[in-house]
Amino acid sequence: MTTEPIRDDLAAIPRYVPGKALPQALKLSSNEVPYGPLPGVADAIAAAAADVHRYPDMGVARLRDELAARLGVDAGRIATGTGSVALIGHLLQAVSSPGGEVVYSWRSFEAYPIAATVAGLRSVQVPNTPEHGHDVDAMIAAVGPNTRAVILCSPNNPTGPALTADEIDRVFDAVPESVLVVIDEAYREFVTDPSLPDGVERYGDRPNAVVFRTFSKAWGLAGLRIGYMVARPEVADAVRRCVIPFAVNGPGQAAALAALAAEDEMRRRVALVTSERKRVVEAARDVLPEVPQTQANFFWLPLGARAVEFASHCEKLGILVRPFAGDGVRVTIGLPEENDAVLEALRSFAA
Ligand SMILES: *Cc1c(COP(=O)(O)O)cnc(C)c1O
Hints:
With about 350 residues, the chain is an alpha/beta fold. The protein has 12 helices and 12 strands. It is about 40% helix and about 15% strand.
């Protein structure tokens, strides 16, 4: 059967597997924060609803100005989009060229191979270290004349470790300025190790640095799809050209501003998550000592061939986690009683 005029390479794209959702089940499969929208957010959305017959501000001016002020950068260096997933795709489209390549660690965020292929770039996947972090030296060695970008996912989804300043410095020092160094910091707010770098602060002034952040995780707006990136003005402008007009909708812009105004409450909730993370990872290691360190709001169970089996075991107990067949299982940190249920599932699985 012919699929013309559809591009052949699309058939090879792995499908994005969303974390499962079943009513009643504990949903620990999508790295959401369990406390509902931040205070003020629902009211801001309700107020913005009165204007949904109008197109939103296409330039997303108020939100970009607010982010710029907080990050200490010019608003011209910020681009927004419908989730950072969409923006990563737009960035790769903006740098794509025939034969071009993008280097990233694997296992990492499942959106990368999809975004790369759609953008017409070849993925060069570099295996993680035995500790489930990025193998920075191997990544540097994988950069060649066709490389358009290197993606660093820090903390890494789905395994948890973040990159050190020394590791990221080495990447910047090794690659030419014509290669973008993309730092995906979707989980930056959950980083508690004070020695770990903030991508915007430490690398923001580099001409080839691009830092991605999102409102989906710590800020509790996954359902509204808002992400942003910081780069030099020319790169941010190129990405804005690729973004679909009016991508970030009015209620979303209002909600993001309301969420930023509730930053103290965001920090309080994140502290609850990270203190649970410490407790849960320690308890999980009693069963599975190989659980790697994590700086995000999830942890990784390197169960290998038993990954899918563990996810089914959890599902029978009413808990949804995210398996990666043959590799491991990613579990989101939830409420204390939810985390206890996962630990109990792990114990009964291992027994
Ligand atoms: C969740 C996540 C994102 C953000 O996704 P959105 O599209 O902003 O919801 C980006 N990168 C990584 C690694 C993620 O896990």
